[in-house]
Amino acid sequence: MRQIKACGVLVVRGNPPESFLLMRHRDRWDLPKGHVDGDETEEECARRELLEESGITAEDIDLIAGFRWVTEYEVNSKRFGEPCHKTLVIFLGRLKRDVKIVLTEHLEFRWFPWQPPHQVQPQTIDAVLAAAEQILAGK
Predict the structure, then answer these.
(1) Which neighbouring-strand residues pair with 69?
(2) pLDDT at position 78, please?
(3) pTM
(4) Which H helix or E strand runs over 135?
């Protein structure tokens, strides 16, 4: 089975967090993320996808050291036209300043209130938010 990897960033605003960013696909909310290209690192991929999907630059965000959330699952890949084993890596980033979100691949975006526990999507979003809550509560 083909192995694929995607990386992204859970973006929070405020310290302590006030809200987090999700992007709207046709049928669901998701984090800004995408597939690793060539020999780029996970962090390079996550930052590139964040910029491409939201307009948030590397200078606009601080990645929180020590946070690297990983999950694996099977998908029917539209990109490859076959079932694949997917590894998803999510970093946690805090905005340094207000930014204008620029949509390029999604229908809309929303800043959701940071009010744990969150119930958005159980497979990935809720789990990464729970992990982020633990890290952010300790800071």
Answers:
(1) 90
(2) 77
(3) 0.93
(4) helix 125-137
